[in-house]
């Protein structure tokens, strides 16, 4: 599936169009072939690169499988024609089952910008989920998102780190965690051996001292 | 893991609602095929291309996972 454009001239991405990061003096390398030095544009809808003569390429985020500092793995195939870079359309290949792969590397002369470039790409990538992923529209995510905290942007999907996951636990959940970690071998208070958690509500329900059974709660 | 793509091992840093994954301290199982990933330490993987995620079974606390999942479900109902 080729969502690439040719190595060609196209208008410079503008801030109004969601340009997040612009990195001049950046060399681009495709599958080990150097394309020269140009400017990398990290925008909300495209990852683009233009060299000094105004030729370049533009990537769409759904085709970007993986990115890291300097490195971008794209779900597309490229071949070089005499006049530039052409994205392969679907060919009658014997490799039909294997999806195409292209490796890009971007080498900015300013190494200190790598972190910002990586972060900008993470944010833009998260703006383009596959259509079938958007099932729970009302899910707002959590308030615990480091990036949103720092940038006050509510539309960035929430990442849960380990520490934040821990802080999501209710008081009962934390008690469970402590008990599991510390007292697994002991049988004290094991009448609360449960398959799930109990909230304030369920505690109230059992105020009269009813004991829990080993209930397998199905949600 | 993508059929034609690299299998990557690393530390799970974070994950979002689309299962986009950030890994740190990564290593690639096919470095001959992806030599340019050798210097890469941290990466962001698009959730939709991931075929499977393999967790180290002895390090997964299923009780804790169930806790968190149920709490999340309860929260969403409110």
UniProtKB/TrEMBL annotation, chain A:
Domain of life: Eukaryota
Main localization (coarse): cytoplasm
Keywords: Cytoplasm, Nucleus
GO biological process, one term: chloride transport
UniProt keyword annotation of Nucleus present: yes
Pfam family, one: Voldacs
Localization terms from the record: Cytoplasm; Nucleus
InterPro entries assigned to the protein according to its UniProt record, in alphabetical order: ICln (IPR003521), ICln/Lot5/Saf5 (IPR039924), PH-like_dom_sf (IPR011993)
Cellular component terms per the entry's GO annotation: cytosol; methylosome; pICln-Sm protein complex; plasma membrane; spliceosomal complex
Biological role stated in the UniProt entry: Involved in both the assembly of spliceosomal snRNPs and the methylation of Sm proteins. Chaperone that regulates the assembly of spliceosomal U1, U2, U4 and U5 small nuclear ribonucleoproteins (snRNPs), the building blocks of the spliceosome, and thereby plays an important role in the splicing of cellular pre-mRNAs. Most spliceosomal snRNPs contain a common set of Sm proteins SNRPB, SNRPD1, SNRPD2, SNRPD3, SNRPE, SNRPF and SNRPG that assemble in a heptameric protein ring on the Sm site of the small nuclear RNA to form the core snRNP (Sm core).
PANTHER family xref list: CHLORIDE CONDUCTANCE REGULATORY PROTEIN ICLN, METHYLOSOME SUBUNIT PICLN
Subunit field text: Component of the methylosome, a 20S complex containing at least PRMT5/SKB1, WDR77/MEP50 and CLNS1A/pICln. May mediate SNRPD1 and SNRPD3 methylation. Forms a 6S pICln-Sm complex composed of CLNS1A/pICln, SNRPD1, SNRPD2, SNRPE, SNRPF and SNRPG; ring-like structure where CLNS1A/pICln mimics additional Sm proteins and which is unable to assemble into the core snRNP. Interacts with LSM10 and LSM11.
Similarity remark: Belongs to the pICln (TC 1.A.47) family.
UniProt protein name: Methylosome subunit pICln
Species, as recorded: Moschus moschiferus (Siberian musk deer)
Automatic annotation (TrEMBL), chain B:
Domain Sm: start-end pairs: 7-54
Record-stated family: Belongs to the snRNP Sm proteins family.
Subcellular location, record wording: Nucleus
Entry's Gene Ontology BP terms: mRNA splicing, via spliceosome
Keywords: mRNA processing, mRNA splicing, Nucleus, Ribonucleoprotein, RNA-binding, Spliceosome
CDD domains membership: LSm2
InterPro entries listed in its UniProt record: LSM_dom_sf, Sm_dom_euk/arc, U6_snRNA_Lsm2
Organism: Moschus moschiferus
Gene Ontology cellular-component annotations: catalytic step 2 spliceosome; Lsm1-7-Pat1 complex; P-body; precatalytic spliceosome; U4/U6 x U5 tri-snRNP complex; U6 snRNP
An annotated Gene Ontology molecular function: RNA binding
High-level lineage: Eukaryota, Metazoa, Chordata, Craniata, Vertebrata
Coiled coil: none
Domain of life: Eukaryota
Protein name from the UniProt record: Sm domain-containing protein
